[in-house]
Amino acid sequence: MLSPTRTITWTVGLLVVLLGMMVVSAALGPVRIEPVTVVKAMLNALVIPTDVITQSATTVPVVGWQVPVPGLEYVPVFSFDVPDTHQTIVASIRLPRIVLAAIVGCALAAAGTVMQGFFRNPLADPSIIGVSSGAAAGAVAAIAFPALVPFGSLHLSAFVGALATAFLVYAIATDGGRTPVATLLLAGVAVQAFLGAMISYMLVHSGDDLRQAVIWMMGHLHNSTWGDVQFALPFTIVGVLILLSYARDLNVLLLGEEDAHHLGVDVERTKLLLLALSSLVTAAGVAVAGVIGFVGLVVPHIMRLIVGPDHRILLPTSALAGASFLVATDTIARAGPAEVPVGIVTAALGAPFFLFLLVRREVHAI
Questions:
Q1: Which residues pair with 52 in a beta bridge?
Q2: SS3 155
Q3: Helix (H), strand (E) at residue 52
């Protein structure tokens, strides 16, 4: 029986690791900043809105964790003495990127954990049913043919493309109220192949926008803003929290659908919810950061080796470990003389480690 103390201990420990990783990441860059100064700048960035002071469209200038709302005055929660240059670098340039990396890493790792349990397949990841391909198709269409896309935002176009693909795959695989997992997997492979052809066609005809489209597909967090954080954060928080509430049902599904039904699990409803929520958090992450591989594949395997297969502890620890992993890899991506897309770094680190697990026979059917 799983001890709640063990889950809490691991969760708190990984949360501390994540916060430490964020501080270290914010301290590194062309301008090195002392970690203590970074912490003070982070705390200074915490602001709270006060009462409406005017009906005009002007805003009170503020460097903080949120986009200012017209008509609201913002008051800092803390007021530490930090040089203005360092405050701006941390709060306006580095911190949005770091927080976004944590959100995306959390989303991808949580979705990957659920997908591996859902399909009972160690090779499953958040993109297995075509969510990433759908997001890529939407994003490339918005970049190469903006006039043909009804959405004004690249993020929104990618987000809609990802969710539309997920539900298309589900609709194809569902027959008579039942959705066989094998059919769902095959439908995902077929849809991914079709979307891959569409993406290739759009890239060929993207002209001067080819570089932007290719960089987006590599996965990147360059020029991240608090607006990106606000886009991804609500979907990720809500989706991951609801997934956590289904951790026990996911454990039962590992026994097989027939046994799960006899144990009181509404199998088809649970499968739909798990698929929908995993697609939602994946879509939110991919929409703001592009296609970043191996986070949702490798991190759940690592945590499964450490904490075991029980999703009641595996899911929250994988989410936090994924957040730390992407913060760390993005720090590496921007550490060199020329920044590289973070998706290259995650693949360069994740693929060899996954092969190592295969050689050690640590990766096996769930």
A1: 72
A2: helix
A3: strand 47-52
Rounded-to-integer distance, Cα 284 and Cα 107, Å: 8
Q: Measured between alpha carbons, how far is residue 264 from residues 118, 125, 248, 260 in Å?
A: 17, 27, 12, 7
**DSSP conformational letter for 62:** -
Q: Given 3-state DSSP classes, what are the helix, strand and coil percentages for the chain, each rounded to the nearest 5?
A: 70, 5, 25
pTM: 0.90
Tell me the residue range of the domain where 111 lies. 96-359
In a domain, residue 74? The reply is no
DSSP letter (8 states) at residue 51 = E
Q: What 8-state DSSP symbol labels residue 178?
A: B
Q: 20 lies in a domain? A: no
The answer as to whether 40 is a domain residue is no
Burial label, 69 (beta-carbon count in 10 A; 0-12, 13-18, 19+): exposed
Give the C-alpha separation, 263 to 158, whole Å.
39
Q: What is the largest CA-CA distance in the chain?
A: 65
Among residues 110, 171, 179, 25, the alpha carbon closest in space to that of 321 is found at 110
Digits of tens for pLDDT over the chain (366 positions)? 677 888 899 999 999 999 999 999 999 988 999 999 999 999 988 877 665 444 443 443 444 445 555 556 667 778 889 999 999 999 999 999 999 999 999 999 999 999 999 888 877 888 889 999 999 999 999 988 887 777 668 899 999 999 999 999 999 999 888 889 889 989 999 999 999 999 999 999 888 888 888 988 999 898 899 999 999 999 999 999 999 999 999 999 888 888 888 888 888 899 999 999 999 999 999 999 999 999 999 999 999 989 999 999 999 999 999 999 999 999 999 987 888 999 999 999 988 888 887 777 666 655
Q: Is 269 exposed, middle or buried (0-12, 13-18, 19+ CB in 10 A)?
A: exposed
Q: Which residue has the tokens 């680190």?
A: 349
In the chain, DSSP assigns E strands to 47-52, 72-76
* Residue carrying the six token digits 């490798």: 298
51 lies in some domain: no
Overall domain count for the chain: 1
CATH code of the domain in which 211 resides: 1.10.3470.10
